[in-house]
DNA sequence: CTTGAACCTCTAGTCACTAGAGATTGTAGA
DNA sequence: TCTACAATCTCTAGTGACTAGAGGTTCAAG
């Protein structure tokens, strides 16, 4: 049995965040000492690691809640879990695509006034003002 | 002179968002009719387009505030603006890098239980629970 | 002059935390 | 056993960039 601070250190999840997860129902309510402090065991550690990993992968709290529910009801859980993971993957791919477009345009914009003589107007500001200069929509 | 609804239509920025930008000081306070409704001219339209474009590119409200200040004080504005744009670009590139790692891992996870026979435990959940399976840290 | 769409302000909610105040508890050393 | 102080507790409020809704007012077409 260990304290919230210990759990925090082991999982690298900040203390207020742990309490927040508990409040949100992601984490079961922890046992308490007679003095009302939380105590955790290995189960709590594993569950929090799971949550942390899923958050790192960009799953929303809502999605994680679903995944946890699936863990507790193993019937059909595999298909549902795969579905959630695939949606997440599609989401990530869409974000990458969009960011690449942004990268392209920002590269163009940033190159405006490099080492060479600075013209009267700032190219960066002009580029931002004039959407027509963009190669594509966004 | 046109109304906030008209401005919204032309810029594709929602009405409450326009008011929010005004409140944040991004947009100058609009002129008002005798009945207290906002009226905009071409200047307002251009400034909002600028803001919208910058937001689309992921610039924060804070960064846009700086860019707008630069527009009003053209001395040295070019270097400063280029700096802001470059930071933004670095940020975007970092995000892309991170998302690509996530994509890789999610692909691996999603492939767990495809069409073939569903095993006893869900691979997706197991993969999420066990960080050790990851190729890299995140 | 009437009607109803569009506008106004204000408050509160979203997501996933984070920060701080003020009080209580746990624990190591004397 | 006492003391000191680090760690914990609950609670409220703040973050960024909006979004939603209530309840009231104004504009413009017919």
TrEMBL record, chains A, B:
<feature type="domain" description="HTH merR-type">
    <location>
        <begin position="1"/>
        <end position="70"/>
    </location>
</feature>
<dbReference type="Pfam" id="PF13411">
    <property type="entry name" value="MerR_1"/>
</dbReference>
<protein>
    <submittedName>
        <fullName>DNA-binding transcriptional regulator, MerR family</fullName>
    </submittedName>
</protein>
<dbReference type="GO" id="GO:0003700">
    <property type="term" value="F:DNA-binding transcription factor activity"/>
</dbReference>
<dbReference type="GO" id="GO:0003677">
    <property type="term" value="F:DNA binding"/>
</dbReference>
<dbReference type="InterPro" id="IPR000551">
    <property type="entry name" value="MerR-type_HTH_dom"/>
</dbReference>
<keyword id="KW-0238">DNA-binding</keyword>
<dbReference type="InterPro" id="IPR009061">
    <property type="entry name" value="DNA-bd_dom_put_sf"/>
</dbReference>
<dbReference type="InterPro" id="IPR047057">
    <property type="entry name" value="MerR_fam"/>
</dbReference>
């Amino acid at each position: 049995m260990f304290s919230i601070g210990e759990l925090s250190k082991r999982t690298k999840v900040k203390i207020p965040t742990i309490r927040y997860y508990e409040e949100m129902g992601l984490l079961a309510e922890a046992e308490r000492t007679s003095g009302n402090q939380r105590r955790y065991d290995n189960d709590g550690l594993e569950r929090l690691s799971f949550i942390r990993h899923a958050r790192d992968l960009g799953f929303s709290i809502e999605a994680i809640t679903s995944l946890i529910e699936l863990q507790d009801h193993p019937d059909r859980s595999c298909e549902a879990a795969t579905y959630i993971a695939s949606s997440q993957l599609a989401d990530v791919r869409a974000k990458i695509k969009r960011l690449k477009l942004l990268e392209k345009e920002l590269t163009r914009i940033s190159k405006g006034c490099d080492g060479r003589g600075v013209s009267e107007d700032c190219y960066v500001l002009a580029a931002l003002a004039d959407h027509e200069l963009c190669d594509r929509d966004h």
